[in-house]
Amino acid sequence: MARACDWVVELGADDPFMWVMFGCNTCETWTLGSHCWYRCQRVVRDLKVESASAGADEGHWRCATCWGKWCWGLCGPMRLVVIGRASMEGGFEPGYQFAYIGDTDASIDNKMAFLRTASILRVLSGKEVTKESLMAALDTLSNNVVCKFSKGVREVRCAQAMEVSSETQDQAGVRIVCEDPRLSLHAAGQEYLVLDKKLIEAKKKEPICTIDQDFLHYLLDYAAASYDIEATWPSGDATRKLRNRILDSAGFLRARRVIAAAL
């Protein structure tokens, strides 16, 4: 469950909607699908890719358009917060907003982890937590984002995964791997949708700003108030400890209940 949350960008399922998108600081774009990246793993001496279990901690993501490496130091603060209200057509009402997330502390990261988990649980809707059910949930969430942004959001454009030669991969000391096409791109030429900084700033007629951290806390608390996580959490000993750890983390459950009662 915890690993699956890394692929979730949706933080608020009810109006207003809220997403935090991952992007490339070189291309200045943000992918709508969190799987629309090349997953790379380090190559050992005999040029064989390490197994998923052995190399999982040493893998990294690269932009499928420019081959740029995603790293927290450069790309983390430029994650894009998107906030909007639903339209009757299933897209956004005019007035949706974009902002950089900036440097976040542990309290914000914990709240976002909580909301990503809640998003998965909402889609699972009480189903048993298995690898396949999690994959299906991630696929549903990704398709929801693409569908939402495809309707009337003019800052979106199509991108295409580049061909990365074996020589280029050798120079980086990695190999492109794809455990599942719902987790990462698996072939050159695949098309995917991105939010483009140039299109965003052209429409706004001003640079993208960084969101105020206090306001971000407020938005995350508001989003958390819409979830009834106790009602959707799967049963079983395997998930009970994780449930309790998330719900009790830093008193967030108590804060969520206070906010829900005040709304």
Walk me through this protein's architecture:
There is one protein chain. This protein has 263 residues and is an alpha+beta fold. It has one domain (4-262). It has 10 helices and 11 strands. A hairpin with a 4-residue loop joins β1 (10-12) and β2. The two termini are 30 Å apart.
From N to C, what is the helix and strand string? EEEEEHEHEEHHEHEEHHHHH
The coarse overall form would be: globular
Provide the low-confidence segments as ranges: 50-57, 258-263
Mean pLDDT score: 81
Strand content: 15-25%
**Number of contiguous helices:** 10
> What structural class should be given to the helix and strand makeup?
alpha+beta
Write down the oligomeric state: single chain
Instruction: State the share of residues found in helices, binned by percent.
Output: 25-40%
Strand order of the largest sheet: 1-2-7-8
Largest sheet: 4 strands, antiparallel
Beta-strand segment tally: 11
Overall number of structural domains: 1
Rg, Cα atoms, Å: 19 Å
Distance between the termini: 30 Å
Q: Short summary of the structure?
A:
With 263 residues, the protein is an alpha+beta fold.
Topology of this structure?
Layout: E1 10-12, E2 17-21, E3 23-24, E4 29-31, E5 38-42, H1 52-55, E6 60-62, H2 72-75, E7 80-84, E8 97-100, H3 106-124, H4 131-149, E9 156-160, H5 166-172, E10 174-177, E11 191-196, H6 197-204, H7 213-224, H8 229-232, H9 237-248, H10 252-262
Antiparallel strand pairs: 1-2, 2-7, 3-4, 4-11, 5-6, 5-10, 7-8, 9-11
Helix pairs in contact: 3-4, 3-7
